[in-house]
Amino acid sequence: MNFDDYRGVWVFIEQNASKIEGVSLELLGAGRKLADKLQVPLAGFLLGHEIKPLVNQVIAYGADEVYVIDQPILKHYRTESYMQGVMLLAQKYKPEIILYGATPNGKDLASAVATDLSTGLTADTTMLDVDATNRLLEASRPAFGGNIMATILCKKHRPQMATVRPKVMKALEPDSARHGKIIEEKIDLKEEDMRTKVLKIVNDVTKKASLAEAHVIVCGGKGMGDLQNFQLIHELAETIGASVGGTRDVVEAGWLPHEQQVGQTGETVTPKIYFAIGISGAIQHVVGMKNSEFIIAINKDPNAPIFDVATYGIVGDALEIVPKLIEHFKQLKTEKGGEISYA
């Protein structure tokens, strides 16, 4: 394999009902940095039906080029049809790096493509960088239960591929004045050739809002001591109109259900305000919340790693500090007529 034939950083632009998934826009921001380091174009590739209106948005968020396969057979995601589209593009244009969102469809597609291209794939990445001298993608993710960060390289195969968790990268500010190149392709695939059929799309309207969408989160750790003390986390959250989260230890102890876990094996969140209370700051947790706009940490250990990522830190006993916060916010709500603004 001649690696000199492979150039460019590509991002899979996942769309659903002609709306681009947020993680794809985040990956364009991350991909822009990698492409600039390698001095190559950044490309988005877009598969679906009646999706050409999305091209300008992809360019506005940082892409220099957009590869488009717009056919009725691609209206709904299916592994077989989408994989054939990606294989056609990858084999014809030979990108050196391909990034996918670590969504159900993104992970499914990436693993299928990696198998057919006989290349490597790093799953659930939380950090990306590139060794520009050796043109190696440095895809990092927590390992050994979140106790270390492992950086994984794909030295012998191309393209280098990774899936990246939503919310861990930041999208660029869109620039509608940007211009880019559009490349259209077609796949030779008929509906009667497909082994799977989409019979119906069912939207679950009863599903609760994800913790990942919350604007304010109060997250508690095992430093709260026990389930009874953890009720202070719920009381603070209720007082300020926030969502409740917890660390893996809290979930394993049965204090919260898994869907409220923040961290590598839980939700990745980017709220406006994040309270980290009684949380030491293990890597496994930090990767799930480090991109929060404001992080307020409360811990009695002045050397707790959580203070390294905190915007504001309070050293002290959470069981003494949290009740005072609750009292203060209740008084503030009374003065403000029952509401607290986070503008």
List the helices and strands and how they pair.
Elements: E1 9-13, E2 15-16, E3 19-20, H1 22-38, E4 42-48, H2 55-60, E5 65-70, H3 79-93, E6 97-101, H4 104-117, E7 121-125, E8 127-131, E9 136-143, E10 148-152, E11 160-164, E12 181-184, E13 216-220, H5 227-240, E14 243-246, H6 248-252, E15 273-277, H7 283-286, E16 294-299, E17 312-315, H8 318-335
Parallel strand pairs: 1-4, 1-6, 4-5, 5-12, 6-11, 7-11, 13-14, 13-15, 15-16, 16-17
Antiparallel strand pairs: 2-3, 8-9, 9-10
Helix pairs in contact: 3-4, 5-8
Tell me about this structure.
- By secondary structure, the chain is of the alpha/beta class.
- The chain folds into two domains: 3-193, Rossmann fold; 211-335, 3-Layer(aba) Sandwich (Rossmann fold), CATH 3.40.50.1220.
- The chain contains eight helices and 17 strands.
- Strands 7-11-6-1-4-5-12 form a seven-stranded parallel beta sheet, sandwiched between helices.
- Helix 3 (79-93) packs across helix 4 (104-117) and helix 5 runs parallel beside helix 8 (318-335).
- The model has no long low-confidence stretch (mean pLDDT 92).
Would you summarize the structure shown here?
By secondary structure, the protein is α/β, with parallel strands linked by helices. It has helices at residues 22-38, 55-60, 79-93, 104-117, 227-240, 248-252, 283-286, 318-335, and strands spanning 9-13, 15-16, 19-20, 42-48, 65-70, 97-101, 121-125, 127-131, 136-143, 148-152, 160-164, 181-184, 216-220, 243-246, 273-277, 294-299, 312-315. The protein folds into two domains: 3-193, 3-Layer(aba) Sandwich (Rossmann fold), CATH 3.40.50.620; 211-335, Rossmann fold.
